[in-house]
Specification:
It is a single chain. This protein is an alpha/beta fold and about 260 residues long. It has a single domain, classed as Vaccinia Virus protein VP39 (Rossmann fold, 3-Layer(aba) Sandwich). The chain is built from 12 helices and 9 strands. It has a 7-stranded mixed β-sheet with strand order 3-2-1-4-5-9-8, sandwiched between helices. It has a two-stranded antiparallel ribbon with strand order 6-7. Helix 2 (about 20-35) packs across helix 11 and helix 7 (about 130-140) crosses helix 10. The model has no long low-confidence stretch (mean pLDDT about 95). It binds S-adenosylmethionine. S-adenosylmethionine binds next to loops. S-adenosylmethionine binds near residues 48, 100 and 121.
Amino acid sequence: MSDDAWASLADQFVDGAYESVKGQVRTYVLHHQLMEHFPEPPGAVLDVGGGAGHQSFPLARAGYEVTLLDPSPTMLAKAEQKLASEAPAVRNRVRLVQARGEDAAEATGGQRFTAVLCHGVLMYVDHPGPLITSLCRCAAADGIVSVMALNAKTLAIRPALERRWADALAAFEASGERGLLGVDTRADTVEELAELFRANEVEPVTWYGVWLFADWMDPAATEEVSAVAAVELQASRRDPYRQLSRVFHLVGRSRADA
Ligand SMILES: C[S@@+](CC[C@H](N)C(=O)[O-])C[C@H]1O[C@@H](n2cnc3c(N)ncnc32)[C@H](O)[C@@H]1O
């Protein structure tokens, strides 16, 4: 995708996807999974491909210093807009940087972060290697690297539930899919990303599913978000549920001597 391919997708993603129960569940589940690994605030968090800040602004609210990096001026404008409604103390803890994730170390002046997040971005890059290397370079010794990616092992689920049987059959051997935003996306496996982590001095710690049931809810559903989120959080942590999630969340820790 070109840098500002997100110009045309921003409204749909920020105002549409995040408003749904599914979107809110995603933020809740990822936040709780992250908190299992984060040290107490303060600490410096880099959110690569951070978009409008849905995942990292709550971290700034919790006391972390957040650098949100994204190549898309449109997404950064959305982030700026969202930030304006935060308290001044929170706004002061957030810095927005326009750059590609692959150039994050240069764009942030070589700073090393307590945690580096990259959620929902890998599916839009052709090859995972350069982005993972960049994330790992930005993590401080003992720092967290957190990646959310499309699960290559569950690609048949969506077409099958949509009764697109020929697509479902092809999906068992596919390496990506036309995503919900109408853009072609690339899928990864936990094992391959874990190997890339290791090659970059980051030890994989654990992995989770993200959503399972909320993925199939009517976008107009008026379900109690907290009730759905509590179920999804439990499902995300255990087999076989986490294995069936269409996206996965992999957390690693940079080696202490890195
Ligand atoms: C689906 S949004 C995810 C936003 C945010 N991480 C979240 O979870 O809400 C994908 C984001 O990735 C950004 N992006 C696309 N290619 C990128 C790259 N090579 N490096 C960093 N960000 C990228 C887009 O501009 C967009 O903001």
